[in-house]
Fold:
Amino acid sequence: MRLMLFAAALIALTACSKPSPPVGKWEGGTESGATVVAARVEVLASGAVRVSAPDVTNAIGSRAEIDAYRQRLAAELANGWPDVKPRHFDFDGKTFRKPGGYAPQMVWDKDTNQMTLELYIGANPALPVVLRPVSDFHDSPWAQG
Structure:
């Protein structure tokens, strides 16, 4: 009888526990309209998250000028990464939100291990920045090839 009560209590506790965020690293970048973004996310074993996403808005110009923006952002991202402090988010098994917040900050796809950073710039709607999982960060967050 005691064993059954213990098992029922354990199941109840497990059902009520919050999901653990996925531990790992993700990086990527996007060009959307006149906005260029380079981004990194690292979810630590403690559940804290390091995130950085420098951007350039009104990035209008030739392909060479856009590529120069990308290089600049990649350098800013890599050089500033050591100073990025971990912070906590609420995580429901798929979506990361600021504590007590409503708006999604990141969305994780468990099946593909892809992370999408929801970047809010000014009063604009969220800009999704699709990130790929990496074992370690690269000098440039754009796909290596």
Notes: The longest strand covers residues 24-32. The CA atoms of residues 5 and 11 lie 10 Å apart. The radius of gyration is 19 Å. The longest helix spans residues 63-80.
